[in-house]
Amino acid sequence: MVDRYPIAYKPVRDVFVHYLTERAAMLDYGSLINQAQLLVSLFWVDLERHHPGIDSLALTDEMTQAWKQRVRVLPDGEARRGVHTVMFVVRSFYLDLMQWALEDPARGAAWAAPCPITAADVRGYVKETRQR
After folding, report:
1. Closest listed residue to residue 80, CA positions, set 93, 90, 69
2. How far is residue 34's CA from residue 28's CA, in Å, rounded to a whole number?
3. pTM (two decimals)
4. Domain with 39 in it
5. What are the pLDDT digits (tens) for 73-88?
6. pLDDT digit string (tens) for 31-59?
7. First and final C-alpha spacing in the chain
8. Are 38 and 85 contacting, i.e. CB atoms less than 8 angstroms apart?
9. Residue 42: C-alpha distances to residues 47, 96, 100, 105 (Å)
């Protein structure tokens, strides 16, 4: 599932594989595929494309802000509907990694990083849902 997308840095690819394997027990197949696409393609592969050589989940503020601007717009220039869904998936990923680092430092401490998605970033979700 992860290998559908060209991740350049193999250790990060392995983190995504492990994360999605853990999540698979709680999700149906379609939801799992969707999470993989949002997390790997729209998030990480986009970061690698714009920041060649990136090798850490700890993002600079500049990288985070630029990614947030890019993810809000579709390739054809229209606003992305459901951008909050992307933000929630990325936020969940980072918060899960932090929780794993606390529970089992050997497994998760190397990849725990500050979450690039703040509560303010996902605050408009309810409004977006009501509009839909």
Report:
1. 69
2. 10
3. 0.89
4. 2-131
5. 998 999 998 898 999 9
6. 999 999 999 999 999 999 999 999 999 99
7. 29
8. yes
9. 8, 19, 23, 28
